[in-house]
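Slide 14.
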Amino acid sequence: MNKTLVLSLATIALLGTNLNAESMYTKFQALEDEMKSLKLEVSALKSAKKIANSKIEDDEDKIDAVEVDKDSEEAQEDEEKMDVEAEIEDIHGALSELNKATSGNHLKFGVDYRFALDNMQYKMADGSEENNDAFMTNRLWINMDWATNENLSFTGQLAYNKAFGARSGASTGNNFETFDWIANENAYDDTIRVRSAYFLYRNDTFFETEVPWTFSIGRRPSTNGHLINLRDDDQATSPMGHAINVEFDGLSAKFSFDNWVNGMYVKFCAGRGMSNAAPKFAAAPYSTVDSGANPDIDLIGLIFVPYDNGQYAIATQYYFANNLIDDSDGNATTPGFDTVGGLHSATINFKTNGIGNEISNFLDDTTFFVSGAMSVTNPDGGKGMLGSAQRKAGYSAWAGLQFPSLISDYGRWGLEYNYGSKYWRSITYGEDTNIGSKMATRGSAYEAYFTEYLVDDILSLQVRYTYIDYNYSGSNGFFGNTTGAAMKIADVMDTPMGNIAGSVVDTAQDIRFYLRYKY
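Slide 15: predicted structure.
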């Protein structure tokens, strides 16, 4: 088999990879070029076959006139003929598989299925305990990508996430369960929803300047962002997972200055987390509702990466979210929301992919990061936020280490720790931690995990342990005084609201095992 045929089979293997929006068009162009090359080779080999057959006929005509070793020559000619026919057949097979994989266009599908088993234990503020020894879930993501040309592409993802069977304690009236920010992140039902759907435009110049840029709008890929993606074994999305990890609809524009400084870019983001609009069959469908309704929840943000050379990276993020909400009556089953104010958030982090330079293979393959974040409340008209009518600042620190397995060839170990102060508030409700967002913790969170790849990067397993020790309540609540108020856990029993101590978590732990198939 010649080099071209080997390249053909490699091309088919390439189709099994998960193409992303940034590179898919380029890869499919390469595939199309390869198909053209294969077709040319088929033509050339057919010509060679004709020449070989012609040579055989000529030799047969001359056999009486030329003395040759007939048996040896005929055997060689037959062998050449068979080689040509076999190679043509192989190349036709490669072309057929290539056409099947591409379906004759630039559409690419992929699946990501995960079975997870969680053992969750809670200690409440009144000393009581809650638990679920074996909570099993199915999570399915269906990925789809389409490259129109080198400048324009589409990416989408359908998803569902549900408990085995049906959850007996689930209520269809619980608005928190299907809140838009976490619609695909919590184990609810088997409804397939849109997790992301957006188009991406890219160009190498911006108004005739040598500044590559992109523009995108739609249902954003805004969960499992930078740094939190490491333990989730996912490619990072745009946001920094320290401060934001929710689904939302919006737009973004990114401008790269890599020509001047390694990896430098700035990205502007804007989104809407809730729309104020009347019902479809109201007198004025979808009109703004002024009486007793919440205004639009909007977010604007800026991501600035001043340096990233592939090994060392520094990144910053700022956002402001306005018209944030909380439960107005304290009833989580049928909540009514009140607008309580806005929130400023700022994050800075440092990450190194490889410690030192060729000190050892182990350190070269080790990742370390440290991140710091701050949040500042902006109460609306004297309304309380996080238990106070005044502006309050909160702080959080986070550090993590991921390194090669010492017991297998491809496994990865990870260790993480994060701390949050009394008034720390992140918007990380979509984080993939069933006992509650560890990044939102007002207190300390500890985590250790091991990821092992069983079949290439297609089938993997992970064991993860998460322990959260809360110093203050409200870590996983919203933004006002109802679910978001920060009360010292040790003092909850002594407050006038001591009767709620049985619903305030003091410590929580989760032992998770999963099997995951990605292709």
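Speaker note: The chain has a mean pLDDT of 84.
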